[in-house]
Amino acid sequence: MLRCLSTYLFLRHRLNPGLLDRIAAHPVEAVEVFAARQHFDYTDREHVQELAGWFKSHTLTAWSLHAPLFPDREMGRAGAPAVNLLHPEKSRRIDAMDEMKRALETAELIPFQNMIVDLGERGDSWSQRTLEHALTALEHLDAFAQPLGVRVLVENLTNEPTTPEHLIEILTVGHLKRIGVCLDLGHAYRTVGIDAAIQTLGSRVRSVHVHDNHGTRDEHLWPGEGTIDWKRAVDAVKALESKPAVVLEVDSSLSAAPGFSLDRVDASLALFD
Question: If you placed Cys at 162, which of 38, 124, 128, 157 could pair as Cys (CB 3.0 to 4.6 Å)?
């Protein structure tokens, strides 16, 4: 399985060649770039070109791009609305799609293979209208992503629209055969359970987000610092027929902790050896 690090770990810093050099110095084969403007400014052509030049001259793969969650540089703390493809208001859904497409356009220069998409926000409920909004959004994104060589992967969150059962319903009803799933182990642990999520999502899983928690909050801890049974989780992931990429997605606060070292990344990904 491909060993990958999400740049979410460095969300408080601007993504630059020096930071990518640090990551590439470790046994990490690929990165998932987190599209937050203060970190990766997908609207800044010079910034995108700088990173594109780095990827062209290095072997580290641009495995995926995590779609933006907010359209500002403060992750919504100043009041900017979340990027929500399922919002009841049409204008909000249109704004969300525009923001997603701005980020996705960077694949013209940086060879991202996948785009991780969150459907809705925490607390969003499931209904026939939600299903219709999800189908419309994913069909549109898939049509936009395909010429760029990017596959859309939807992520299981902790809201009703993205339970494993509802994700499969969306993909099946819409005949969305190109779209896969990013299985987030931390989110699955807090909801239906990792074993149940894998059993439902099965062959649709193309990528796996790895982080830990204590079952009550989305803490994004290092594996082993929460209460997930990692031996059981790893065995379940390894049993998947499709052999997904393994993406370590721990919180940005951990990179500022005393004694932080990227060696911790190596140890976390080594769980899946």
Answer: 157
